[in-house]
Specification:
Elements: H1 2-8, H2 13-44, H3 60-73, H4 80-95, H5 97-122, H6 139-157, H7 160-177
Helix pairs in contact: 1-2, 1-4, 2-3, 2-4, 2-6, 2-7, 3-5, 4-5, 4-6
Length: 179
C-alpha cells in the first residue's frame, strides 16, 4: 500500500489512476490471501508457518489458489496488481526517479518475501507430526474464492473497464491541484 501513497503524491494523472486501481486490486488480492490463511487455520488451528510444509502434494487446489494470489500480490503480468503498480511507477517516474527507484526496491523485497512464504508452505517435507488430516478446498470455499479470482484476472487483462470511468475525475483533480 506504500505504492498507493507514492502514486497519490506523484500529482499526475497516471500515478493517481494507478493508485486507485491498486487500491481496488488490493481489496481483491489481500482479501483472498487472508482467506487462504483462514482455510488452513480452520483445519489446523495454527498460523505458525513452521507447522506447514509440503501441502502441494496433498492440497493441490489450495496451492493453486495460493500461487495465483501470491503471483497477483507480487504484480505478475496479467493480474490486477501489475496494472496498478506499473501505472504508479510510471507516474512517479515523471516526478522523481530516485523515489521511484526506492518504491521499486520495496516491490522487489516484498515479492521475495511472498515467494519465500509460498515456497515454505507449498513445498518441503510434509509435517505429519503437526497436521494429521489434509482436506483440500471444498466447493463452498471455492465459490467464495471465485469472485476474487475473476476480479483479479479481469482487472489484469482488461483494466480499461475501470480506467475509463475514473479518468475524467482524476483529470479534474489534477487540474485543481495545479491552479
Amino acid at each position: 500500500m506504500n505504492l498507493v501513497i507514492l502514486g497519490i503524491f506523484s500529482f499526475n494523472t497516471i500515478g493517481i489512476e494507478g493508485a486507485i486501481l491498486q487500491s481496488l486490486s488490493h481489496g481483491f488480492v489481500a482479501s483472498a490471501l487472508f482467506l487462504i490463511i483462514g482455510v488452513v487455520y480452520d483445519r489446523y488451528k495454527t498460523r505458525l508457518v513452521q507447522y506447514y510444509g509440503g501441502l502441494a502434494s496433498v492440497m493441490p487446489i489450495y496451492i493453486f489458489l495460493f500461487l495465483f494470489f501470491t503471483m497477483a500480490n507480487i504484480s505478475f503480468p496479467g493480474t490486477s496488481s501489475f496494472v496498478g503498480e506499473f501505472l504508479i511507477l510510471a507516474g512517479s517516474f515523471k516526478t522523481s526517479t530516485s523515489v521511484t527507484f526506492l518504491g521499486a526496491t520495496g516491490v522487489i523485497i516484498g515479492g521475495a518475501y511472498s515467494l519465500w512464504l509460498f515456497n515454505r508452505i507449498a513445498y518441503g517435507n510434509l509435517k505429519i507430526q503437526y497436521t494429521t488430516k489434509f482436506l483440500d478446498i471444498s466447493p463452498r470455499e471455492f465459490v467464495v474464492f471465485l469472485p476474487l479470482i475473476l476480479g483479479t484476472a479481469l482487472i489484469g487483462v482488461y483494466p480499461n473497464i475501470f480506467l475509463t470511468s475514473i479518468h475524467m475525475s482524476v483529470n479534474n483533480l489534477v487540474e485543481l491541484l495545479y491552479f
